[in-house]
Amino acid sequence: MKTREGLAEIETESDPDFIGPGRAGPSFYNRLQSLNRDITVLIVSALKPSHYMDAFGGSGVRGIRIGLETGTESFIAEKNRSSYLAILENIKNNGLSIASYNGDFIRAIREYQFDFVDLDPYGTVVPYLDETINFMKKPGYLGITATDLSALTGSSQGSLRRRYGSSVKPGLWMHENGIRNLISYVARRAAANDCSITPLLSFWKGHYYRLFVRLIRGRKGADRMLNYIGRFEMSTVSVKESDFIGPIWLGKMNSAEMLNSLTVPDYLKKRDLEILLDRLKNEDRMILFYDTRDLYSGKPVINSMESVILAIKDSLDRDVFPTHFSTTGIKTDCKRDDVMKALGMT
Ligand SMILES: C[S@@+](CC[C@H](N)C(=O)[O-])C[C@H]1O[C@@H](n2cnc3c(N)ncnc32)[C@H](O)[C@@H]1O
Fold first, then answer.
1. Bridge pairing between strands 51-54 and 73-78
2. Is the separation of the CB atoms in 55 and 76 below 8 Å?
3. In terms of pTM, does the model score above 0.85?
4. Do residues 257 and 170 share a domain?
5. Same domain, yes or no, for 210 and 298?
6. Which of 13, 14, 28, 125 for mutating ligand 1's site (highest number of atoms within 8 Å of CB)?
7. Ligand 1 centroid, distance to 190 Cα (angstroms)
8. What is the dihedral of CA 325, 128, 247, 206, to 10 degrees?
9. Which of 50, 189, 193, 305 is most open to solvent, judged by the fewest CB atoms within 10 Å of its CB?
10. What is the pLDDT of residues 49-81, one digit of tens each?
11. What's the Cα-to-Cα distance from 215 to each of 110, 196, 225, 282, rounded to whole Å?
């Protein structure tokens, strides 16, 4: 079936209008990831790498959009033979002549120099990280889409321990914990390979996490970066939770410079994209957030988020922002006790 996304027209065997996490199969396409690909287009346009690799092609939509919409040279790898043949057709039908490879993307990374590698496997990126970090060009950029949220959030404690070696719990903070867990893991794998990362943009959307980092070689930078990984005391944000979680990434998840350099072309302007980019600008005001479901626990009245934000602003004369991680969460640089006082909770 044919579908349009961005400036691309894609033929795919899966139903493009199916809404859900997507089913693995030849010429895999998932409309739920279109925002992910829109943001990839914005990032690649802003960073202007020399050679972008879509390491897990599927229908080829991501690499094709990079070729059509950014002016960067794109390359698509795909292991599955019939998906690869579909990618060739899609490349041709979009009037492009971008290079593609039928096989394990790691072999292509070893042979050619890519300074932007985008990993989008089914599930976890863990099995692919070390070789990618080792063989891609540095300095460079690494894009990661992870859909193993049950492991990253701690919903599946066994997978969390085996894959990420950390301790977090599912609950109100699970998606920020999940992303900080993923960044921490990528940072530790970079450090193990004498490299360091700087997160450029990180977000959660439905069934996936998306992360873009800059990767550079160097032991000193790796040593410095490791200082941003540690355990976090939940009682600084929560009334109910007092455990330590981690190791998680305690540094910034987004770069203000990166966010400010993104330009959204008219054909990609959409409300959900605008809201997300706006929210990401304030996600690093604090580690995690205050959640009204936690602050008001046991109390009968739950105020609207607008009135919560206004009450804190008025009482403390400080900025307060919504977070994309929770519809009932806020980000501010005030202490938990001051927020509680401003809300009349103490
Ligand atoms: C989640 S889909 C990719 C979706 C695609 N990036 C998109 O945005 O629509 C994963 C794809 O990677 C392919 N694949 C799995 N392992 C691979 C590997 N080691 N090298 C290249 N392709 C691989 C699978 O056949 C599948 O088509």
1. parallel
2. no
3. yes
4. yes
5. no
6. 28
7. 23
8. 10
9. 50
10. 999 999 999 999 999 999 999 999 999 999 999
11. 17, 6, 11, 23
Question: Nearest CA to 183 among 236, 142, 128?
Answer: 142
Residues near 304 by beta carbon (within 8 Å), at least 6 away in sequence: none
* Neighbouring-strand partners of residue 142: 117, 213
For the record, the structure tokens of 340 come out as 């509680």
Ligand 1, residues at Cβ distance < 6 Å:
28-30, 33, 37, 55-56, 58-59, 61-62, 77-80, 83, 104-105, 120-122
Cα-to-centroid distance, 81 and ligand 1 (Å) = 11
Mean pLDDT of the chain: 95
Question: Are 114 and 255 part of one and the same domain?
Answer: yes
DSSP 163: I
Instruction: Locate 130 and state its tokens.
Output: 């070390």
Query: What is the DSSP code string of 98-146?
Result: -EEEES-HHHHHHHS--SEEEE--SS--HHHHHHHHHHS-SSEEEEEEE
Helix locations, the chain, DSSP H: 34-47, 61-69, 81-93, 105-111, 126-135, 149-152, 157-159, 174-192, 219-226, 256-261, 271-280, 292-295, 305-316, 336-342
Which of 196, 189, 177, 322 has the alpha carbon at shortest distance from 250? 177
Distance 83 CA to ligand 1 centre (A): 9
Q: Please, are residues 126 and 133 in contact by the beta-carbon 8 Å criterion?
A: no
Q: How many domains does the chain have?
A: 2
DSSP conformation letters of 9-36: EEE-SS-TT--SS----TT---GGGHHH
What's the DSSP call for residue 283? Answer: G
Average pLDDT over residues 248-266: 98
Residue 171 DSSP one-character state: S
**Which atom number of ligand 1 is nearest to the Cα of residue 55?**
21
CATH no. for residue 87?
A: 3.40.50.150
Q: Where in the sequence is the domain holding 337, given as residue range(s)? A: 290-342
Q: What's the pLDDT tens digit per position in 83-119?
A: 999 999 999 999 999 999 999 999 999 999 999 999 9
